What does this fold into?
Amino acid sequence: MTASAFTIENLSVSLGARAVLTGVSASIRAGEVTAIVGPNGAGKTTFLRALASLLTWSGEIRLGSSDWRAMGNAQRARCAAYLEQRGTIAWPLPVRDVAALGRLPYEASPAGRDGRGAGAVERALELCGLAPLAERPATELSGGERARVLLARALASDAAFLLLDEPVASLDPAWRLRVMDLLRSEAARGRGIVAVLHDLSLALRYADRILVFDDGKLAADAAPAQVLAGGALEAAFGIRLETVQTVGGLVVGVSLPPR
It folds into this structure.
């Protein structure tokens, strides 16, 4: 299934007696990189998990004209692939087989051996620099390599939207840039990329839109330049920002305000 946008209206989530998200409304469009930023505990992961229907939420979510809540689990998984924060690999499966788990919404076996599935898996491994490691047990890889395996699993799904929680957090500087370039390229191919990012320089450099969360509410939803100029980042994080345009892109300096 393809669709042009997620439409979220008045999304709220409570965990026990605590309201974690309150009244969030936004549109997540295909063909764009949407960065989710905000301080610890602001509701970023909860928003992403709600969008993936991995927890109970109230409000309304639509994918195109379809009611997201009314769709079956397999249908939702074919539309949106979720990459959890600090995901783990529990079994010593070959890297290729872990990536092929992204094909489960389509096939009874995770092997992804049909033509389209095998091609999607091989493409994902190549994009993530894992082709030389395809037969290695994934549990023998470094933390950063395992993170790339899990990203490959999401890419192999062919889902129209990728919901990624801190996809570059455990990567070295070169692979952070490579993965962000990859996500930018996937958006250019028509995929909707939604990524929680803590690196504000990457968010401002690569995103088409930034959603700023603060205390369970959506504090800003705009293009990077507008978010930066509007002061929402400084207000949410309690920091001062200075930006410098370099050959490699925008670099953000962060300092605490004077007491």
About this structure: The two ends are 53 Å apart (CA to CA).
